[in-house]
Amino acid sequence: MKTSDFEELMLKLFGNWLLEFENEGEYGFTHKLEKEVNVIAYATNLTPETVEKAHTIGADLLITHHDAWDFVYGMKEVCLDRLRKHHISHYFTHYPLDFVEFGTSTALFERIHIDKITTLSTFKDNQEFPGIGVFHTPLSFIELKDRLERVMEEPIKAWENHDRPIQKVGILTGAGNQTSLIQYAKNHDCDAFITGERSLYSVQYAKFAGIHFYVGSHTFTEIFGVENLVVRIQEFFPNVKAIKIQEDHIESF
Predict the structure, then answer these.
(1) How far apart are CA 119 and CA 211, in angstroms?
(2) Is 222 annotated as a binding residue?
(3) Which residues touch 238 (CB under 8 Å, ≥6 apart)?
(4) Which CATH superfamily, name and number, covers 3-98?
(5) Residue 139: pLDDT band by 50, 70, 90 thresholds?
(6) In this predicted model, what pLDDT tens digit does every residue of 170-209 receive, in sequence order?
(7) Of 114, 155, 234, 239, whose CB has the highest number of CB atoms within 10 Å?
(8) Exposed e or buried b for every residue in 143-178, given b needs 16+ CB within 10 A?
(9) Is 218 annotated as a binding residue?
(10) Known binder of ligand: residue 87?
């Protein structure tokens, strides 16, 4: 697979989601080299550490969900220096991967073995909306917490806010800590809402609204979306080797 082949495949896989966020800094190459791509490394975050780990495994291309955002002051420049030094291309896809049909929320639903996704997470009218799924056999509060911790391999925070079994679940991975997202899940009769960040007000509102609230880390609620993307790349280019970079659980409670 050449870098140009990869670019063409991104257009095919993401389609209109790339047009939706065109020129908004939500996807693209941070560093681009036209070269043969034999090894892909993937992670949630672009950091100096993930670049070095990509170099250690001999990656030609590093794919992440997040860029090294400008508000993490100075980190992007260091990442760029190291990408150039090691001759590694880097591509990130943020909002497009959040909302494409195989993206981050869908991927977490898949990993917790939801039986049916009734509504995909999406973005419209400049607003994010969670995905919604249903368990045919309801889970208890603790059963869902245990399942999430096994999948993400980290402790999570969870608030038990009613005594019903859990059948309908809302998910928005990453920074889904807005009370409007929890309200959306509540208004769609969800018994639980899962995300990757919390605030005082999200915890307060979940309690007030009577909906279980589960919070993993931003990084590890979203890694499975990147994994889903890499699997699709390998379907088109089966000779490309893909290696997951293990990131530290720096957000764990």
Answers:
(1) 18
(2) yes
(3) none
(4) NIF3 (NGG1p interacting factor 3)-like (3.40.1390.30)
(5) very high
(6) 999 999 999 999 999 999 999 999 999 999 999 999 999 9
(7) 114
(8) ebbeebeebbebebebbebeeeebbbbbbbbbbbbb
(9) yes
(10) no
Tokens of 156: 């999570």
- Mapping DSSP onto H, E and C, the string for 49-81 reads HHHHHHHHCCCCEEEECCCCCCCCCCHHHHHHH
At position 139, the amino acid (one-letter code) is L
Please state, in angstroms and rounded to a whole number, the distance separating the CA atoms of residues 182 and 202. Answer: 8
Q: Model pTM?
A: 0.97
**CATH entry, 113-220, from 3.40.50.2000, 3.40.630.30, 3.30.420.100, 3.40.1390.30:** 3.40.1390.30
Q: 188: annotated binding-site residue?
A: no
Place of tokens 């490394």: 41
Instruction: Convert the pLDDT of each residue in 50-106 to its tens digit.
Output: 999 999 999 999 999 999 999 999 999 999 999 999 999 999 999 999 999 999 999
Residue 66 marked ligand-binding:
yes
Kindly list the domain boundaries of the chain, sorted by start residue: 3-98, 113-220
Residue from 227, 229, 108, 252 nearest 169 by CA: 108
Q: Which two tokens stand for residue 78?
A: 């260091």
Query: Would you say the CATH fold of 113-220 matches that of 3-98?
Result: yes
